[in-house]
Amino acid sequence: MVYIALLILLVGIELFYFKIADKYNIIDKPNIRSSHTSVTLRGGGIIFPIAISIAFFLGYVSWSVTLAVVLVAVVSFIDDIKPLSQLPRFVSHVLAVGLVFYDLHLFYEPLWVLPIVFVLLIGWVNAFNFMDGINGITVLYALTAIISFSFLPTNEASLPLLITMGLSCFVFGLFNVQKKAKTFAGDVGSISMALFLGYFMIKTIIDSGQLGYILFFSVYGIDAIITIVNRLLKKENIFQPHRSHLYQYLANEMGYSHILVAFIYAVFQLVINALVVYMDTKGYLTLFFTGAFLLILTLIYLFVRKRVIRKMILKNS
Known about the structure:
Elements: H1 2-23, E1 27-28, E2 40-42, H2 47-57, H3 63-81, H4 86-103, H5 113-129, H6 137-150, H7 159-176, E3 183-184, H8 186-208, H9 218-233, H10 246-253, H11 258-281, H12 287-316
Helix pairs in contact: 1-7, 2-3, 2-7, 3-4, 3-8, 4-5, 5-8, 6-7, 6-8, 6-11, 9-12, 10-11, 10-12
């Protein structure tokens, strides 16, 4: 009953936000780098930080994690309305990561661990932020991760939090996983969700002692890293919006449905996650397996990306 009431509440909050966004013209106008062609309400992902705030009042999550997510959400929402310089955004990210470190007691770990985790978490947050490019991909990928985390015994105590965040994804998905989306997550949604998922990934690795769970983010992670490398080689500004991800090529240049591409990414990741959980239960989720599996996935990705780019060239020639 609690979750049914929570679901109804979240739907009501989202619909109320749409009225505000429509009244104050909080919209996303398409440009040459966009993967959409019509004006759409921006910031529907505000439901994510609201959900974690509700979870805090219900006693499901700590104040430090809640504050971290809300902090980046507030700054990101301001940026959605009126673009900010990189400084306030970066400061909010640093403070939020510090709060995550505090919650996970990482300040008691060896000093060399902190900069590594810091760079990885900041990189993940910024990479995930660019995922809000085609309809459905952000929320379906986030929901895939949340469902996967829920099946791990080490996360049993966190199930109420995961269910709450999963419900927020479901509600947002009602309005985003459509051929013509009613709303996009905006920075407020994608960055806050990225921080939450990054926090939960670190928490899961620490609690389980199993680094192999990093594979839960492997599909989009590989896409993001290789795309960044390609853009650096082309001397492009990696902090600017672009259409260079494989999923963007598939949806924009190849003409596949946004929803189809989003489901392909989510389902492929879900299959990988199921394999990871199975390998761990059998005691086979070793560092060697993790590294070898990442290498195989990377090679598959490069093969597919090369084929798609070749088809794009032939299509445009």
